[in-house]
Amino acid sequence: MKRSEWRFALLLMLAFFASMPGLLARWGVESSNRETAIAAEFLDIEAVALESGLGVLQALDGLRAEGLTAVAVSELTGKELVEGRLPLEFGPGFEFFDDVTEISDRAVIRVKKDASFSEEIENYIRLRFPDAAFERNGKYLSVILPVSFQSTAEMGILPDFTGLESAKKAGVALIYRPSPSPGVPGEDVSKALEWVLERYKPVGAVIPRGAVLPAYPDIEPLSRVLRDKKTPVAKVEFSRQIGSARLEKALFPLILPLHSVLDEEVIVRGISRDELVDRFVRAARERSVRILYIRPSPFFSGDRLEQMKRESRVITTRIEGLGLKKGWPSTYPLVRTGILSAFSLSLMTLLLMLKTVTRFVDGKKRTVTRRVLLYDLVLILVSGILTPVLLKVSLASRIFGALAASFGAAEATLVALDGNDRPIKRMLAGAGVAILAGLVIASFFGNTWYMLRMATFSGVKIALVFPPMVVLLYDLRRRIHPESLEQVLSRPPLWGEIVLFAFLFGMAGIVLLRSGNVSFVPGWEKTFRETLEQLLIARPRTKEFMAGYPCLVLWYVTSRMGLWERYREVFRLGGTLAFSSVINSFCHFHTHLSFILLRVVNGLWAGAVMGLLFSALIVWVVLPAWRRWGRLLTS
Fold first, then answer.
1. Beta strands in 401-488, from DSSP E residues, in sequence order
2. Residue 422 in 3-state DSSP?
3. The pLDDT of residue 492
4. CA–CA separation, 69 vs 327, rounded Å?
5. What is the C-alpha R_g of the chain?
């Protein structure tokens, strides 16, 4: 290794060692928070129990034996009360009173004084609707709510006391789901919620129902009650509920990630039950989701209780096989970004940028002088000066993170492609640069805020686009490509270049479109991915083992054989995908570091194997066929 390479390596290691405290803190949090809960809605359990001819408690015992951890009980809406969810009558005033026009359209509850939960209903209504009027007439209690009957269809009126008592008797963790409350002051909503949390404690989590958060927009009383009771709110993946983001920020870090698949999505996309199980396992494994919310099939005509049992059993078995534990999860402790993590990101970013600039400026110059050593000391000093800026200014930290990812992928590619000799060593060196850059980024952004996805990393897209541009400009400037940029621009384009450019442009568009979006992944590839997940636990990313690393191997082979000098630049540009993808993996701060490292290793060896297979196909099949058919065409 040349002296300049030693300097670069030593500075890389300095940045890495500075990031270690942050990485160890994150590793500790991830190692101690592995409990994963399987939850189901009480109304669903009640329905499948009835279908099977069993009592709710019997069905609950059977599901618990197969892995069910928690039961979600909802605050019932006016529509659900009309359907008979509680032993009471609910309707407009004119159905209960004669000649009272001023309350004819008001919502009215009538319950027998000796009915189940009559006392609880009265106590709850006095908190939820303090302006309600109460009338006692013989054996009935009538409650005239200060809202119209028509407005209560999707409004939370009363808790499902049957579900709350059943969950309490069954001894399962309880999740409470308050419903929207249009027109009801936030203070009244919070008082009613506090009553439920106190009476049925401990409530493991709250998952608000509906399109709008209860008490929105006045969420301060609601968040205050949840903080006082230390009750976390579930952060539902891909939810668009109005107001939920504000509540999550107010309660941070009292948050538990939750994954759920709505019946509408299952029906529209035709998702099979096995695919659903895979999605739940993947959410727990890859995204550290800690509540898996299962539902019975909306169109299965068989025994749906047995189906839920089987799916609970399979999910439990698979997640335990991945090192996770069955049980009610705890929230993450508050982990902040340390000063050493900020210094490591500052140093890594400046070092990678300086290294790239140096490549363009002095090319092959590799001398070490006192002046160069002084430059290194200045670099470390400037990194220290910028450290508090990264800690205090979020925009600066996001910019430095994006720059570290972009220049890290570019430099890793150039390190791997510095020559075609010793390809294994060069590929490992490039992967090492990308891994170190990724770990430094993971150390800085691996705090609780990012681990819970309260914010997302903003450098993923640019890290895919920027490295190929750097590699192309470098190759044109250093004449690694047979022509310079001036020569390419001064002559008419070749047909082969036009086709190649169109191909690269199309592939770049596909990569950007698919990045972080499974909607554009074809069915056969999803099946292939799921097979790899079963075999390797951490599936290598497609951009690494099917494109990036194979392109590196193909460039080593074609350059050593002197093949396709004008067109093999495509392999060098394609190689950037490998290292961009590696760094991108470390930017998934909600994924366990152990899983990311395993995925990166799997991508490296699997990509090298795929590259060797492609190379063998070219050397032993394509080239002989080309020589043979080429002679026939020219004879």
1. none
2. coil
3. 64
4. 6
5. 31
CA–centroid distance for 394 within its chain: 21
Does residue 100 contact residue 205 with C-beta atoms inside 8 Å? Answer: no
What pLDDT does 630 receive? 57
How long is the chain?
635
- In this model, does residue 251 exceed pLDDT 50? yes
Read off the pLDDT of residues 579-622 as tens digits, 9 standing for 90 and up.
Answer: 999 999 999 999 999 999 999 999 999 999 999 999 899 888 87
Taking the CA atoms of residue 168, residue 169, residue 171 and residue 173 in that order, the dihedral angle to the nearest 10 degrees is -30
pLDDT band at 568 (very low <50, low <70, confident <90, very high): confident
Q: Is the peptide bond before 217 cis (omega within 30 degrees of 0)?
A: yes
Distance from the first to the final alpha carbon of the chain: 51
DSSP E strands, 363-443: none
DSSP SS3 for 515: coil
Q: Decide: 254 and 231 in contact? Cβ < 8 Å.
A: yes
Helix, coil or strand: residue 322:
coil
Q: What angle do CA 437, 440, 446 make, to 5 degrees?
A: 130
The secondary structure of residue 138, as a DSSP letter, is: T
- DSSP 3-state of 484: coil
State the alpha helices, DSSP H only, in 36-159.
42-51, 56-65, 78-82, 118-128
Mean pLDDT taken over the chain: 87
Q: What HEC string does 327-381 produce?
A: CCCCCCCCCCCCHHHHHHHHHHHHHHHHHHHHHHHHCCCCCCCHHHHHHHHHHHH
Q: Phi then psi for 584, rounded to 5 degrees?
A: -60, -35
Q: Which residues contact 184 (CB under 8 A, 6 or more apart)?
A: 128, 129, 147, 155, 215
Q: At what angle do helices 244-251 and 220-228 cross, to 10 degrees?
A: 40
Which residue type occupies 413?
A: T
Contact present, 45 and 59 (Cβ < 8 Å)? yes
Q: How far is CA 395 from the centre of its chain?
A: 22
- In the chain, what are the domains? 3-29+334-634 (no CATH), 35-75+162-326 (3.20.20.370)
Angle of CA points 599, 439, 408, to nearest 5°: 95
Q: Which residues pair with residue 40 across a beta bridge?
A: 71, 294
**Cα(89)–Cα(68) distance, integer angstroms:** 33
CB 595 within 8 A of CB 448: no
**Enclosing H/E stretch for 78:** helix 78-82
Contacts of 274 (CB under 8 A, 6+ apart): none
* Contact predicate 322/285, CB 8 Å: yes
pLDDT tens track for 296-326: 988 877 899 999 999 999 999 999 988 899 9
Whether the Cβ atoms of residue 391 and residue 342 lie closer than 8 Å to each other: yes
3-state secondary structure of 146: strand
pTM metric for this prediction:
0.88
Q: How far is CA 87 from CA 82, 114, 195, in A?
A: 11, 11, 21
Amino acid identity at 430? G
> pLDDT tens, 478-506?
777 666 556 655 666 554 555 555 655 55
d(CA 553, CA 572): 10
φ/ψ of residue 212, rounded to 5: -125, 140
CA 435, distance to chain mean position in Å, is 20
Pick from 431, 474, 465, 442: nearest CA to 569:
474
Query: Which residue, chain included where needed, has tokens 């068989």?
Result: 302
